[in-house]
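Internal tracking record. Fields below are filled automatically when a chain is submitted to the structure queue. Please do not edit lines marked as system-generated. If the sequence contains nonstandard residues, flag them in the REMARKS field before resubmitting.
Queue: standard
Priority: normal
Entity type: single polypeptide chain
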Amino acid sequence: MPRIQNCVLFLAATLVSTGQLVGGSPLGFPPLPFIRGGSATTTATKSRTTKQQQRQRRHHHRGNLLPGPLELIGNVKQGLDKIGDNMQNDWKKFSRGMQTVQGNIGKFVVNIPRALPFLPPRKRQLKCSKLDDVCNTFSACLKGSEVDTAQLIKACRAHLIFMKSGGSSLRLVAKDLESNLQKAEKPFKKSPKQGKTLSSLLESERDSGIHHGNILKEQSAAMGLLWIRRSLAFQLELYSSLIDQEGPHPRDAAYEAYAKHLSPFHGWALRKVFPASLSQMPDREAFIAKFGEVSLEELTDEYDREIVNKLKSLVAAWDPLISSWEKDFERLDLEDMRRV
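SYSTEM-GENERATED OUTPUT FOLLOWS
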C-alpha cells in the first residue's frame, strides 16, 4: 500500500513538471480526493503556479520601466500645450473685448455734450489780433487837431495786413492801399522831422514846387495820402454796414460806398474792374468771422457782438481822423479831382 501511494505521488509530480496538469489535475481530470494527498497536492500545485505567474508579472513590469516616464512626460507636454492654446485663445478674446470697450468709451466721450446739453461747450478765447492792432494804431493817430504822420503810416501798415486777411473781395482794395502807402512813406523817411505831422508833410512837399496847384505829382506823398484817405472813407461806410445784423448785404453796401467815395475819381477801366471785384463780397457772417479770426462754425452770438464792438471802435477812430485829413488837403488846395 505505501508503494502505491508513492507511485501516485511520483506520477503527479512528473505531470506537473511537464505541464500535463490542467486546472490542477492530470490530463484535465478533477482532483481525486479519495487518494490520500490528492487535494493537498492540487492546492500546492495551484500555489506554485500562482507564485510563478506573479514572478512573471514582476519580471514583465521590471522590463517596462523605461516607457512609463516617457509616456508621463509626453502626457505632461500635451497638457501644457493645451493650456498654452487655451491661454492664447483667452488673450485674443480679452484683446477683442478691450478694443470694444475702448471704442465704446470713445463714443461715450464724444456724446457727452449731447447727453448733457446743460454743460456749455468750452469757449476758445477770441483773439482778433489784427483787428485789435488796427483799432489801437488808428486811435493814436490824432493828436489834438493834428495827425501824427509816423503813427498814421504805422496804422496803415497794420490795416494792410488786416485787409489781406479779409479774403479775395478786398484784394484789389488792399493792393491799391499798398501802392499808395509806398508813395507816402518814401518822402517821410527822407525828412521825418519836416513831416512830423500830416499837415507839415503836405506843406513842405507843396512848398518844394513838385505840384502844379492841385494837380499833384504822381509819385508824391500827397498823391498817396489822398487815395489812402478815399480808400478809408470807402471802408468806413462798408464796415459801418456790418455793425447791424439786419443791415444790407456787404456786396450792396460796398457798391454804394464805391459810388460815393471812389467811382467819381475812377476812369472807365477802373469803374469796370473795381465793382467786379466787389461782387465777390461774402455775406455778413463770413466777414465778421474773418475779422474775428474764427471759423463760421465757431462764430457765436457772443463772438459776433465782441467783433462788432471792435468794428465800432475802428469806425469811431476813423471818422474824426478822415475829417481832419480832408481839411488839411482843402486848406492847402491839394484836393486833386482828376480821374485815373
